[in-house]
Amino acid sequence: MESMPANMLASAGIKVVLTTRDEQRGLQALETLKASGLSHSVVLHQLDVADAASVATLANFVKSQFGKLDILVNNDGIGGVEIKDGNLFNSALITNGCVSNEWAKGVFSYDENLSEERIDEVLKEFIKDFEQGSLERKGWPRYLATYTVAKASMNAYTRIIAKKYPNFCINCVCPGYVKTDITANIGFFTAKEGVAHPARLALLPNGNPFGLYYIQNEVSSF
């Protein structure tokens, strides 16, 4: 799965910086790209999004080697199906939807009052309810709650930065129910089919709509 976004972008003639926490898996992805004749278009760099020093190292590398990024595809996160340690849950959540909690849905859906502070408020409330064992009673998702709320928060943040930087084409996308490790490979779509949707958005020319949420190819409400 790691090599597929890089494969599609490299196939379009783009120089790709492929990042991964696990360098061994990154090297395996490069081998896959080598078999496709695309490894010359891809540079591997280690990145742990939960480590500020790692993020800074990548930023310095990009600046020194390329000057800037023209395209950023962010599909990173940390999470788990079962997390028993509250502190671990905190760090997992912050670095990672549909949300059942009506109050949270209201915060995420109301564009005029949406802000980073409001998103933080939702996340803090979610953490509190988790620690008190009241997720189900408070109406939060019952399945993969951490992942779901985190992705919904990321989508909300996308709208904030899209408004903040209108000269950039910033969108978010749900690729559908894809066969990956997190779905135990029982999704409806192959990884290649899923990756096609963020790749399409990444290759949109300047002047296209921004601040939107797509479910595959269709614009959807948040």
UniProtKB/TrEMBL annotation:
Single annotated GO MF: oxidoreductase activity
Pfam families, per the entry: adh_short, adh_short_C2
Gene Ontology cellular-component annotations: membrane
InterPro entries, per database record: NAD(P)-bd_dom_sf (IPR036291), Sc_DH/Rdtase_CS (IPR020904), SDR_fam (IPR002347)
Record keywords: NADP, Oxidoreductase
Family designation: Belongs to the short-chain dehydrogenases/reductases (SDR) family.
Classification via PANTHER family: (+)-NEOMENTHOL DEHYDROGENASE, NAD(P)-BINDING ROSSMANN-FOLD PROTEIN
Name of the molecule in the record: (+)-neomenthol dehydrogenase-like
Organism per entry: Pisum sativum
